[in-house]
């Protein structure tokens, strides 16, 4: 994975240009003016133009994401970013572009991730200034966070992925895995991320992984552990993240007829996806 640098972000709509023209007032339009019904196509065109601009930006400045994830999934990510950014008042191309850039590295649902409590706090901290100021502060915090948990040349992240892989490879079908085992898995595999997080947030992630494993049809202790490891690396919203459509594809493999076969396929796909990232470097 590449690292976020200011040089990657500086070309995203430097001027505070709105994503779409302002909506007309709800009152009946005068003759010759544009009402709400006629306005919708203009808004759609403006948003599509921004999506295309962001895709060009990602292709140039985030080439690994572009090659591994693909244009269509990245377009879905940009659309999701525009929608999620609205809740924080991010309505300019620059602000939305920075928000999308953070999604690329922290996960598409980073602002609701219990592993990243500071992200939502900074985005909602209205006392700190307007939306542009808040998203800049969140970006600064993201850069510092990645330095801490990824390390020089991503070494800490690579090591954590390797530890998770080895631990998951030792899990056998029917293994008993309790909450303390889940905590230990995270703390031993990725201490840079979890040692300072706090037990309450870690337990919330463990509970989320358990619930999500049931929803995905892999609701066993082993299934929850595999999903927990993936969330620890790629964010708590990995199952709904356009960047990780490989996850559901792995679980829907027709050859994976049993639950254990599904989990084996999921683990293999996770390893293959990780190798696809690192083979690009």
Short note summarizing the structure:
With 281 residues, the protein is mostly helical. It has 14 helices and no strands.
Write a structural description.
By secondary structure, the chain is an all-alpha fold. It contains 14 helices and no strands. Helix 2 (36-61) packs across helix 4 (71-86) and helix 12 packs parallel to helix 14 (259-278). The longest helix is centred in the first third of the chain and has 26 residues, at 36-61. It is globular. 32% of the residues are buried. Mean pLDDT is 86; it is low at 30-36.
Give keywords.
281 residues, mainly alpha
Lay out the secondary structure:
Blueprint: H1 6-9, H2 36-61, H3 63-69, H4 71-86, H5 93-106, H6 117-124, H7 131-149, H8 155-169, H9 179-189, H10 191-194, H11 199-215, H12 221-234, H13 245-251, H14 259-278
Helix pairs in contact: 2-3, 2-4, 3-4, 4-5, 5-7, 6-7, 8-9, 8-12, 9-11, 11-12, 12-14, 13-14
- Counting DSSP H or I runs of 4 or more residues, the number of helices is 14
Structural class: mainly alpha
From N to C, what is the helix and strand string? Answer: HHHHHHHHHHHHHH
Helix content: 55-70%
Largest sheet: none
Distance between the termini: 8 Å
Per DSSP E runs of 2 or more residues, the count of β-strands stands at 0
Assembly type of the chains comes to single chain
Give the rounded overall mean pLDDT. Answer: 86
* Cα Rg: 21 Å
Shape: globular
Poorly predicted regions? 30-36
Strand proportion, as a percent range, falls in under 5%
